[in-house]
């Protein structure tokens, strides 16, 4: 049965909140919570047009909130140099098509996410039986259809670089999705983890509302390959990050983050993996085609 790893309030890594609900984590790294998910802004305040990058594009209907936050932080009509995706689930690409078109911005993602971003394949069906909580039970209602940004889509290079983000590297962290990536900046230990691990019990409406910090595995109801997800957490824990912004929950940092990640990695099967579930015994994988469905 999945368990939480509690953290101290001192482990929170977010600092000041500006207008439009944008929280600064470092001088050039900030996020805004959009209901159940975070949109992340990489760039210094006042960077201006094409001087910053958006990581993930929120839930459907988030376009105005993301655009307003970007203008507040970077300046009027400031467009990003690019949009980088950790993965293509509905709550990370909700405003993607509209924003990419409006901003005329390239979209960067891992090659294994391409079918979900060019309209050719849908994600495997959610599993409402895992994790408990209302968010899990209603997961069959979440959209799994692909978006189509094929005209702007760029595939992250195999050398691990992130062309619009000098100094950052992408790390393939599959499990939650086949082409899930985390973004890592070694010089200051900053990690954008996406949903490889999260810091709230995403299956629970109460936890999502209160945002009490706790280190968890990826959201259960949309995770399709648990062995791969465990290996991804091991890889991220080995980085020894100083701070982490996740797709869901508040950023965490310092020794509590590292201790929590170590515990999650070492006991991933006991802490994070449900005892039973659609993808526990039969993962959905690229190799046999089960990770991709007809749209």
Your description of this structure?
The chain has a single domain (5-271), classed as Ribonuclease Z/Hydroxyacylglutathione hydrolase-like (Metallo-beta-lactamase, Chain A), CATH 3.60.15.10. The protein is an alpha/beta fold and 295 residues long. The protein contains 8 helices and 14 strands. The longest helix is centred in the last third of the chain and has 13 residues, at 254-266. Helix content is 21%, strand content 18%. The chain starts with a strand and ends in a 24-residue tail after the last helix. It has a 7-stranded mixed β-sheet, with helices on one face. Strands 9-10-11-13-14 form a 5-stranded mixed β-sheet. Strands 1-12 form a two-stranded antiparallel ribbon. α6 runs antiparallel to α7.
Largest sheet: 7 strands, mixed
Order of helices and strands: EEEEEHEHEHHEEEEHEHEEHH
Determine the mean pLDDT: 90
- CATH class membership: Alpha Beta
Helix percentage range: 10-25%
Question: What tags apply to this protein structure?
Answer:
alpha/beta; Metallo-beta-lactamase, Chain A; five-stranded mixed β-sheet; disordered N terminus; hydrolase
């Amino acid at each position: 049965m999945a368990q939480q790893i509690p953290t101290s309030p001192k482990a929170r890594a977010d600092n000041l909140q500006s207008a439009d609900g944008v929280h600064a984590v470092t001088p050039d790294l900030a996020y805004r919570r959009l209901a159940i998910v975070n949109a992340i802004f990489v760039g210094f305040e006042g960077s201006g047009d094409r001087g910053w990058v958006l990581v993930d594009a929120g839930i459907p209907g988030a376009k105005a909130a993301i655009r307003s936050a970007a203008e507040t932080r970077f300046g009027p009509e400031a467009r990003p140099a690019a949009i980088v995706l950790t993965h293509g689930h509905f709550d990370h690409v909700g405003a993607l098509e509209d924003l990419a078109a409006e901003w005329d911005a390239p979209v960067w993602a891992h090659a294994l996410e391409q079918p979900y971003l060019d309209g050719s394949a849908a994600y495997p069906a959610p599993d409402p039986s895992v994790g408990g909580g209302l968010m899990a039970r209603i997961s069959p209602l979440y959209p799994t259809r692909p978006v189509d940004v094929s005209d702007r889509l760029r595939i992250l290079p195999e050398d691990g670089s992130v062309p619009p983000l000098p100094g950052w590297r992408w790390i393939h962290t599959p499990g939650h999705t086949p082409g899930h990536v985390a973004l890592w900046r070694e010089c200051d230990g900053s990690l954008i983890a996406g949903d490889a691990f999260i810091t709230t019990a995403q299956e629970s409406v109460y936890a999502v509302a209160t945002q009490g910090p706790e280190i968890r595995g990826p959201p259960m109801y949309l995770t399709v390959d648990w062995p791969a997800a465990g290996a991804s957490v091991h890889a991220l824990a080995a980085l020894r990050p100083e701070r982490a912004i996740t797709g869901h929950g508040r950023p965490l940092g310092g020794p509590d983050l590292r201790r929590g990640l170590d515990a999650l990695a070492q006991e991933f099967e006991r802490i994070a993996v449900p005892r039973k579930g659609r993808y526990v015994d039969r993962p959905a994988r690229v190799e046999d085609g089960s990770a991709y469905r007809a749209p």
